Amino acid sequence: MRVGIVGCGVSGLASAIVLARAGTNVTIFERFEQPRPIGAGLLLQPSGLSVLDILGLGEAVRAMGARVDSLDGRTLKGRPVLSLVYERWKPDSFGLGIHRAALFDILFRTATGAGATVVTGAQIVGIDDVEKPVVRDVQQRAHGPFDLLLIADGSASALRTVAAPKARAPLYPWGALWAALPAPDALWEGCLNQRYGGASIMMGVLPIGLAPHAGAQRHVAFFWSIRHDQMEAWKSGGLDAFKARVRSLWPEAGALIASIKSPDVFAPASYRDVAARPWRKGRTLLIGDAAHGTSPQLGQGANLALVDAVELGAALAARPDSIDEALTLYVKERSAHVRWFQTLSAALTPVFQSRSKTIGALRDILMAPMCELPIVRRLMLETLCGVAQPPRSVWTPPHIKE
């Protein structure tokens, strides 16, 4: 079987590993001349870690990342808003903050080591036939045909409507600025810390462990929520003014970013609410953020992408004689899990990123006591850990035969 994958991100690389190890001929198309990650850090949840364990990569990512035992969100005055501890879901459970480049390097080396071919400088702009896919790049070079094509080019996918003509992916008004910084001390270890000023100010610090080519220096990722229409004002306001504002709102974070010399350290991130049903047309399948990208409120993008990869592998293994039946099974198995995170992400976005003073005030009053209600707390922990899929039982990893 020949499989083409458009996109060299988490979903594309993880899928390539699963499929190449199963003996599939895999070709990944990457628009950049040099494959690279975008962004500073991400949080791997127990769901994503279980997938990496299935792929035999758990030890490698744990060695590069930083253990996260809890999430602590507070108002600027220090009032608790959101407090979740992983071990209250299952003993010894935890999240793992990791530098995006570190995760990328591990996945990329493993995918190519498994036999996947990476074609760089190939920006795919068209698909000739969804049943026996042939893709065309911006130079109008044809690649294929393939028995199966995975569109894994992210939430801003240029190919999504080929598989899902009615798909919508509006840009969220709010994005974020991210910076990976050396951790000066142990202050930030073990916890994802966030601070909120109503619903219009949100910032946080996530421990992310080691950065590639940076030796033994531990790192953290600092993020600042910002509207896209405020980006130019942020740039023109100057770095010193921004650092002074952060210091006035959250002194510890202000000290963390004090040594930054250039605004170029901050990488802007944008997010989309992707509604793309169905995910497939013929033998062309949307996967990862291209299929179900959400806002970052639940921190599940990379985890859902990893789950997509092993569920696709399991479906193909369960229906070895029919790709079409395998894809139908895959969509069925993934629907409840993905639907929950898409729905909840959309509901929570205005609670943490909006201009509504009322929503922010209600959140600060109600969310902390709600976290202590047993049923609510259990669902929130299952959601944090990436396994919730109401009304069914929680998601559990499939068994993958190599």
Structural commentary:
By secondary structure, the protein is of the alpha/beta class. It contains 13 helices and 18 strands. It has helices at residues 10-21, 46-54, 58-64, 100-113, 160-163, 231-237, 239-249, 251-257, 289-292, 301-318, 323-352, 357-371, 374-384, and strands at 2-6, 25-29, 41-44, 66-75, 80-85, 95-99, 117-119, 124-127, 135-137, 142-143, 148-151, 174-182, 190-197, 201-210, 218-227, 267-269, 280-281, 284-286. The strands form three sheets. Strands 3, 4, 5, 6, 12, 13, 14, 15 and 16 form a nine-stranded mixed sheet that branches. Strands 7-2-1-11-18-17 form a six-stranded mixed sheet. A three-stranded antiparallel sheet has the order 8-9-10, with no helix packed on it. β8 and β9 (135-137) form a beta hairpin. The radius of gyration is 21 Å and the shape is globular.
DSSP helix fraction: 25-40%
How much of the residues is beta strand, in percent? 15-25%
Can you tell me the residue ranges where pLDDT is under 50 for at least 5 consecutive residues? none
Number of helices: 13
Q: What is the radius of gyration?
A: 21 Å
Work out the number of β strands. 18
Shape: globular
Mean pLDDT: 94
Task: Give a quick precis of the structure.
With 402 residues, the protein is an alpha/beta fold. It has helices spanning 10-21, 46-54, 58-64, 100-113, 160-163, 231-237, 239-249, 251-257, 289-292, 301-318, 323-352, 357-371, 374-384, and strands at residues 2-6, 25-29, 41-44, 66-75, 80-85, 95-99, 117-119, 124-127, 135-137, 142-143, 148-151, 174-182, 190-197, 201-210, 218-227, 267-269, 280-281, 284-286.
